[in-house]
Amino acid sequence: MKNIQKNTIPKHRKLHLIFRFLQGSKLYFAAAVAASLVSTILNALTPQIFRFSIDEVLSGSSGTMGSSGTMGSSGTSGSYLSSHLWVLALMIVAVAIASGIFTYISRTNTARAGENFAKNLRDTLFIHVQKLPMRWHDRNQTGDIIQRCTSDVEVIRGFVVTQLLEVFRTAFLVLTSFVMMFSMNVKLSCIVLLFVPVVVVYSTVFYRLIAKRFTTADEAEGELSTVVQENATGVRVVRAFGREQFEMERFDKKNNAFAKLWIRLGTLSGLYWGIGDLITGLQVIAVIIFGVVEAVNGSISVGEFVAFAAYNSTLVWPIRGLGRILSDMSKAGVSFERVDYIIRSQEEAYGKTDEKGGKEREHSGGKYDISFRHVSFGYEEGKDVLRDISFTVPEGSTFGILGGTGSGKSTVIQLLSRLYELEENRGSICIGGRAVKDIHIEELRRNIGMVLQEPFLYSRTIRENIAASVPGASLEEIRYAAQIACIDDAIMSFPDGYDTLVGERGVTLSGGQKQRIAIARMLLRKAPIMVFDDSLSAVDSQTDYRIRCALKEHMREATVILISHRVTSLMGADEILVLNQGKIEERGTHGELIRRNGIYRRIYEIQMSRDDRDMMGQDEKDKKNKKDKMSKEDKKKEDKMDGGIINGSI
């Protein structure tokens, strides 16, 4: 499996994604921005109150320093101070309370906007992943997909609702502060302004350096997630083969690589903040030195100097914070690209529209005969798994496919249900005379019930697992399907019966029990086409026989396709296809294939002489004997038994 491809998207595309997923939250976001700006304006008033206090109340004059360095005074000012100090204190408190209220409004609306944004993005990703073709899933690692749908979404959410809001607030704060500063002293303001491009330049350089490293770090995190996910999923296999040490070393290797990348990022970030401290220190020193000179020369009052110093300090951290914003922006940019790769991946084709451009056509629900015509297919270019195969499955019949590993038998079913799309000029597949590519995919799969070779069970109750195919099914319907699948007795023997929790992927059940529950789930759907992809491989021969007999009795009208490597599972089929390396080697009924003395006959003899004779009624001793040592009487009994099966006893 390959890693997900890199994808670079333009800035306007990122903005489009932001506004797209802010649907339903734009008012919250706008309210958060507006409240934050009001809070910034209120905070900008505080230095002006101090300026007024110093110049007009404490000094009682303009507040400028004379040559002696003392401030002027008057008796009136002391009386004024003692009479109105509470008014100034009340103004500061009122500004602080108002600023706190608007900050609260901003934060609460930010939280609402952020969670709605993340929810919309997660919903879109999850729904879209469900619609992506199997080829896409084959190319991409599960752990990396999970990370993109969770961790990367949180990174984007944090940037959009926190850092993006901070960008608006910082820009407005810088603008407001510079307006106030220029209104008090142009020379000092120009000195401060000289430091801004320096900060912007080195922050931009830092942004470009760190963006590449964030991309590498995210890829490493995806690989680490994949290792953890695979280990957790296959924990029984790992322990069964004693591979714990190997898995620990594998994890340690990925974990060390991931840690080293973040250490490098931390080093680079530390260098940025160190340079920032130096520039900030120089800026503050410059303001103090030139401010004192201006105050001594009488160009600025003491109150104005104090207020100017306060505005300068207010500017320091937002400008310093530009690096953090750019750092988060670079990480969010990487996450945007990773998420956008999923969003822009093409969904599987659902079906063609009609000639008038109307809605997608659905299967009419007529006949369910199946035909393959000159079908060739490969998962990789130039490596065909199926080579020019053609066959027909009449409606209501039972069709068997026999083949070894890699013969292409499971591929036949995946093409029928359009889990993989058949390429143009590579043959045709039809149901009821209509090409499957022209049938709406939901309708197509609704009419095909499948039990795959590796049954998947949810971490829920047995009842919920069976009812997954028909939500809302009654317990009676569920039990009826389970009885046909020969699993009802086993389920009822559990203490909690159908309410028994099966654990993750059905870990508390045996392989045969999981297969039979999966069969019951498919039977509950009552689809007109039923496919069993080696789905009885984990049950014993007698249970296999019982299940097939029950299916034959209760599902007479369904078109059934049986795929198996076990001959006994296919002997009752109306026609059997033998695949070998993607080609049709033989076809016919069980009796016809036995008489041809080909591959099917050889497989039959090997399997029947080894472990399937118990289904035929032979005792354990006869099952272990070889055919060449059997007596003529035993041989006749076996041949007679074979004839009964060939004549359709099942």
From TrEMBL:
<feature type="domain" description="ABC transporter">
    <location>
        <begin position="370"/>
        <end position="606"/>
    </location>
</feature>
<dbReference type="Pfam" id="PF00664">
    <property type="entry name" value="ABC_membrane"/>
</dbReference>
<keyword id="KW-1003">Cell membrane</keyword>
<dbReference type="InterPro" id="IPR017871">
    <property type="entry name" value="ABC_transporter-like_CS"/>
</dbReference>
<feature type="region of interest" description="Disordered">
    <location>
        <begin position="611"/>
        <end position="650"/>
    </location>
</feature>
<feature type="domain" description="ABC transmembrane type-1">
    <location>
        <begin position="30"/>
        <end position="331"/>
    </location>
</feature>
<keyword id="KW-0378">Hydrolase</keyword>
<feature type="transmembrane region" description="Helical">
    <location>
        <begin position="299"/>
        <end position="319"/>
    </location>
</feature>
<keyword id="KW-0813">Transport</keyword>
<keyword id="KW-0472">Membrane</keyword>
<dbReference type="GO" id="GO:0015421">
    <property type="term" value="F:ABC-type oligopeptide transporter activity"/>
</dbReference>
<keyword id="KW-0812">Transmembrane</keyword>
<dbReference type="InterPro" id="IPR003593">
    <property type="entry name" value="AAA+_ATPase"/>
</dbReference>
<dbReference type="GO" id="GO:0005886">
    <property type="term" value="C:plasma membrane"/>
</dbReference>
<feature type="transmembrane region" description="Helical">
    <location>
        <begin position="191"/>
        <end position="210"/>
    </location>
</feature>
<feature type="transmembrane region" description="Helical">
    <location>
        <begin position="85"/>
        <end position="105"/>
    </location>
</feature>
<keyword id="KW-1133">Transmembrane helix</keyword>
<dbReference type="Pfam" id="PF00005">
    <property type="entry name" value="ABC_tran"/>
</dbReference>
<protein>
    <submittedName>
        <fullName>Multidrug export ATP-binding/permease protein</fullName>
        <ecNumber>3.6.3.-</ecNumber>
    </submittedName>
</protein>
<dbReference type="InterPro" id="IPR039421">
    <property type="entry name" value="Type_1_exporter"/>
</dbReference>
<dbReference type="InterPro" id="IPR011527">
    <property type="entry name" value="ABC1_TM_dom"/>
</dbReference>
<keyword id="KW-0547">Nucleotide-binding</keyword>
<dbReference type="GO" id="GO:0005524">
    <property type="term" value="F:ATP binding"/>
</dbReference>
<dbReference type="InterPro" id="IPR027417">
    <property type="entry name" value="P-loop_NTPase"/>
</dbReference>
<feature type="compositionally biased region" description="Basic and acidic residues">
    <location>
        <begin position="611"/>
        <end position="642"/>
    </location>
</feature>
<dbReference type="InterPro" id="IPR003439">
    <property type="entry name" value="ABC_transporter-like_ATP-bd"/>
</dbReference>
<feature type="transmembrane region" description="Helical">
    <location>
        <begin position="270"/>
        <end position="293"/>
    </location>
</feature>
<feature type="transmembrane region" description="Helical">
    <location>
        <begin position="21"/>
        <end position="42"/>
    </location>
</feature>
<dbReference type="GO" id="GO:0016887">
    <property type="term" value="F:ATP hydrolysis activity"/>
</dbReference>
<keyword id="KW-0067">ATP-binding</keyword>
<dbReference type="InterPro" id="IPR036640">
    <property type="entry name" value="ABC1_TM_sf"/>
</dbReference>
